[in-house]
């Protein structure tokens, strides 16, 4: 097994672990907050937010879960695409239309995830302060340099993959002409 196949297998294993962990941590965070806090304290895996979900109403928990679950779904879908890409690499399909298409999809999902992260933060600020007294409710929109850089990088990656796809199609079309 060459080094590319070993690396691809390792990435597939890591992506699978990340899918399971993302699913588990999202559910634990909103519906089993004490277990989540104990897990975070023991391992440091997860994100400790400024709010405590143990005091939330059922509606706040479900709403917050739905907002965060959409972000998790985007991440999981991207990881599933990475697993497919690594399967192609393991069978030495480096410069095929399938590989380019998967890279284009991965960059599109990553771009959507970066944009949604900003929206997710805003929605969670509303949901978590919904039952506060008037004047203590918060709508916070955070958009930092890291968000801007991520969006720009994934936009560039998406554009590059689109150009690669068009180039591949043109080359394939040219190979068919006599």
What are the key terms here?
178 residues, mainly alpha, 5 helices, 77% helix, 0% strand, elongated
Give a quick summary of the entry.
With 178 residues, the chain is an all-alpha fold. The protein has helices at residues 3-31, 33-43, 58-90, 97-128, 145-176.
Task: Describe the protein's architecture and organization.
It is a single chain. This protein is mainly alpha-helical. The protein has one domain. Helix content is 77%, strand content 0%. The protein is built from five helices and no strands. Helix 1 packs antiparallel against helix 3 and helix 4 packs antiparallel against helix 5. The chain is elongated, with a radius of gyration of 20 Å. The mean pLDDT is 89.
Compile the SSE list and pairings:
Blueprint: H1 3-31, H2 33-43, H3 58-90, H4 97-128, H5 145-176
Helix pairs in contact: 1-2, 1-3, 3-4, 4-5
Strand elements, count: 0
Strand content: under 5%
Instruction: Please state the CA-atom Rg, rounded to the nearest Å.
Output: 20 Å
Largest sheet: none
Count up the domains.
1
Provide a count of the helices.
Answer: 5
Label the structural class.
Answer: mainly alpha
CA-CA gap between termini: 39 Å
> Whole-number average pLDDT?
89
Low-confidence stretches: none
